[in-house]
Design a protein that fits this description.
- The chain is 25% helix and 32% strand.
- The chain contains 4 helices and 8 strands; from the N terminus they run βαβαβαβαββββ.
- By secondary structure, it is an alpha+beta fold.
- The chain has a single domain (3-99), classed as Protein of unknown function DUF952 (ADP-ribosylation fold).
Length: 114
């Protein structure tokens, strides 16, 4: 089972869960796809795009559940990142866990990644 991860504001996920569909954050919608990260990439994503932010969730999704709309594409420095070219049914989330920060301010992924 290969999981991909999405960091999202807790209130955005709550609204999406009420509708049953996550259409992405403002950045996702502007880019035309939902940005995901692999387990190896998610800490860097958090540091680069979510530094200092609280009230975040780490959403885990089985990549095969996304089907052919999940595409790995080159991003930062040529690394391949998973991008979902469709809304995400919230029922596909294997987990939606609070993403806390450590004492040094960085987000703490201990015990959250498979």
């Amino acid at each position: 089972m290969a999981l991909v991860y999405k960091i999202v504001a807790a209130n955005e996920w709550a609204r999406a869960s009420e509708r049953g569909l996550f259409e992405g954050s403002a950045v996702d919608r502007a880019d035309g796809f939902i940005h995901f990260s692999t387990a190896a990439q998610v800490a860097e994503t958090a540091a680069k795009h979510f530094a200092g932010q609280d009230d975040l969730l780490l959403i885990a999704v089985e990549e095969r559940d996304c089907g052919e709309k999940l595409v790995y594409e080159a991003s930062r420095g040529g690394a391949l990142f998973p991008h979902l070219y469709a809304p995400l049914p919230t029922a596909l989330a294997k987990s939606a866990l609070p993403l806390k920060r450590r004492g040094d301010g960085a987000h703490d992924f201990a015990g959250l990644l498979e």
